[in-house]
Amino acid sequence: MKIHLNxxxxxxxxxTDEAAKPSGVVILAHGAGAGMHHPFMTDLAKExxxxxxxxxxxxxxxxxxxxxxxxxxxxxxxxxxxxxxxTTKTFPNLPIYVSGKSYGGRMASHLLSETTPExxxxxxxxxxxxxxxxxDSKDRAAHLNMIKVPQLFLQGEKDKLANINLVxxxxxxxxxxxxxxxxxxxHSFNVPKRTGFSKKDMIQKLAGxxxxxxxxxx
Length: 218
Fold this sequence. Notes:
Oligomer: single chain
Structural class: alpha/beta
Low-confidence stretches: none
Order of helices and strands: EEEHEHHEHEEHEH
Largest sheet: 8 strands, mixed
């Protein structure tokens, strides 16, 4: 479906994978270079839906327009706010958990560092992009201590956009935050073939950690 965000941001695509007996709603945002229909997004959404969670996927306006660059963070943060508002109106009686692959999760974190929208109970990062490749830094984490809801970080141990030792240092300084390290995984949660761990196995693993986190919050 298409929804109109506002006159500035325009219309974006949005889809919901519905659970039979939902206990909550996960809003799942895409990474910087691939939209809501990327296999990681669709496979994870389906797995979470089978676990009893509605999953809402959407495109940021730049992706909807076919542009490669995310552009101004301000517009994408505002998009997050409006998507949450839409989801709250659609599912008024269910708790909401925001999440995102890489850039999508980082944009959600900036919104939650400024405000906590009604019904939002937690945030899940599928590979928080702590720094640019080869430029280890914790600068992108400076705002995370302003977030009031519990945070779950699912991070590949071989992620070149998030030195795992620096990520550990960041989480140690945060309240209500959990770090789960994914063995041998890179930023896209790919692992070497020698591990015998398939993409389906990885999706199930990420979904399992997500549902466990949510159950512990209820």
